[in-house]
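Student: Please help interpret what follows.
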Amino acid sequence: MAKVKMRMRTIVNDRKSIVLDYSPPIKNPATGKLHRFETLKLYVYDDPADQWERQYNKEIMMLARAVCAQRQLDIQNRRFGFISDTLRDSSFTDFFKVEARKKQQSFSDNWGMGVRYFIAFAGHDLISRTGRPISRNTAVSYYAKLRHI
């Protein structure tokens, strides 16, 4: 199981950047590539000059620890087959559209039409251009695309 650790990297202007370190590397669900680090784009002062900078550092570190704990929970949930809150709350239609854009490689709008017919079937706003029912072969092709996801 992957472990998540917080690390600090020194950057310019006497500040440090907070980075999450994954060991071993984990697969990014969006890109499918393995990655070892995640930059949180959170920064703390290296040597706080006054009480405001110290308070800022304290709040940023609490936020970074919360993000680190959430990432660890997401990794453990995937290990045991649970769905994370972010995936559970996301829209399948939006996910299907993104996957269709990735898979569509030719001039054929097969993936796009699969998305349109799925949305029409699911009861959303989008309807087919012609309004006619699709043929059995077309339906099988669209179902194959949906099943492939």
The radius of gyration is 22 Å.
